[in-house]
Structure formats: C-alpha cells, structure tokens
Amino acid sequence: MTRDIVWAGPAIEAIPVGRADLLLLDIDEVVLHFIDPFCALIAEYGARLSVDSFRLTGNVRSIATGTAVSGHELDKVTQRLYREQETRQPPVEGVQAALGELAPLTDIVFLTAMTPDHYPARRRLLDACGLPYPMIATTRSKGAVAAELMQRRTGRLVFVDDLPPNLLSVARSVPKASLVHLMANEIFRPHLPPMPAGTQAATGWPDAAAKIRRLLDG
C-alpha cells in the first residue's frame, strides 16, 4: 500500500461549479454504513465492539479473553473493510432519495478521510448505488479542503459529518458554514464530544434532508 498518497479524485479546480451553494458530505456513517459492517468483520476475528467512549481503539475486545484489540490490528481490519467495501458497505437508508431531491438546489461533493488508495473501489460503489457526485479522498484537513472548494463559490456551504472534530475543522476554516451531524449507527451517540456551536443534529436522512433544505433556503 502506498502510504504517501494523500489525495485521490478530481482536483478542486476540476470540480464543476453548477450552483452557488455546496453540500459537502462525509461518506462513512453518513452516506455508507461503516459501524455495522465493521462489527460484522471484527466478529469474523472473534471480537466485538462494546462502547465505553467515543473511539474504536479500546472498545473492541476479544470475545474469548476480553482483551482489547490493539489500534494497529484495528487499522488492518479497517483496511480490509475498505478493500471489500463493495460487498460490505451498503448505503445509509434514504440517502439516494434525499440527495436526488437536493441535487437541483445545490452542488454535491463527497469528502472522505478514507485511505486514498481505496478510491477506485469506493467510486465504483457509489456509482453502483446511484450516487454519482464528485468525490475527494484525502488525508488533508477537511476544513482546508472545504475552504478551497468555497473559493470558487458565492453561496452557502452545508457540511455533514459524523465526527465532531471534522465539523469543528470546517467551522474554523469556513466560519459561515452550516454544520449538520449525522451518524447512521447510534451506538456512539451517548459518548459524543461537544459539537461546534450551531451544529444541527439529524436522526436520519429524511430529517437531514429537511434540515439541509432549510439551511440552503436561509
């Protein structure tokens, strides 16, 4: 695996600007299920997820011994999940219909922190799910990428992510951005760290779409 790759997908200047507004979406746990497939995969290794804090490391334990699985081992499991994502990661319920309704109102771009090496598989998966919107996979700060994307736009930015640190990153880089927190699997919800001020929490895609539409109209 080529670890020095930090970007896959179109360059920012190559992404068409069709509308003034931009809906920028994380993928794992927002567009595609991640936690459920991850739990199914770790079960194949004899482990389970028992959540005591807002992180994977330390919360995945051997079923036989109760020993926590190391972060290094979890990274290997995650990489396998990404290699096999086309058969393991289904779309979050309602996302296709929601984005189809929002597409006439705003440009849509996917922004994922997934290892960029797996870009081709994810692009195929999204296309197969009827989600053809441009995708960037990068290890760069999401806030920095969001700010660069908005340099060519005069409208609003709505950013949707499941991780509060990513929401904060965008809030700092694009202070006028509207933020929506969406997490398909709610197992980590009781352990969420504080959200940036003004973040709207969505319970699923029908709820998220309604909130996004209001933010775009605001």
From TrEMBL:
InterPro entries: HAD-like_sf. It comes from the Bacteria. This is Uncharacterized protein. It comes from Aureimonas endophytica.
